[in-house]
Design brief:
The protein is mainly alpha-helical. The chain contains seven helices and two strands, in the order H-H-H-H-H-E-H-E-H. Helix 1 packs across helix 2 and helix 2 runs parallel beside helix 5. The protein is elongated and about 55 Å long.
């Protein structure tokens, strides 16, 4: 339970959040062209920092600026593995989005792909900018039954 954390667990969590905050500030500065100061991990385990970065969904930002931040090789390796898996999930999500839209189109149902990858492409030019998630399709209320039938009929 949250209230039963020991002082050392609270200290570790505080330290990890501080490292993440410092890393994000430095990474954002690097995106603006400023020199990014190195981030000190004080010997803390790369896996614990990675887990914290993952919880706060900032892995891509940290990996993009890992060299400027001076992140340790073990952490960079974890971020690289995550990036590869995330890109594979984004590709699969892209295929499923196109498949769903094509199924609806073939059924004569007008659909609009929105949020997620569509928003990422419009705002950054990259389908993977938001990471993998679900597929969001908007259909008119009077076409909902036909859309449901088309999608569930295809599995």
């Amino acid at each position: 339970a949250k209230g039963s954390r020991t002082l050392s667990e609270k200290s570790i969590i505080t330290f990890l959040l501080t490292v993440i905050q410092d890393s994000l500030r430095a990474a954002l500065a690097a995106e603006e062209g400023a020199a990014a100061p190195g981030v000190s991990l004080d010997g803390y385990a790369a896996r614990a920092l990675f887990a914290t970065a993952q919880r706060h969904r900032v892995q891509e930002l940290l990996r993009t600026h890992a060299d400027a931040l001076g992140l340790p090789a073990e952490l960079v390796g974890l971020l690289d593995r995550w990036r590869l898996l995330a890109r594979q999930r984004v590709l699969l999500q892209t295929l499923e989005t196109v498949r769903a839209w094509e199924l609806l189109d073939a059924a004569g149902v007008d659909a609009l792909v929105f949020k997620g990858q569509a928003l990422a492409v419009q705002t950054t030019g990259r389908a993977d900018a938001r990471g993998p998630g679900d597929v969001d399709l908007l259909v008119a209320p009077d076409e909902l039954v036909a859309a449901h039938r088309a999608l569930t009929g295809a599995g």
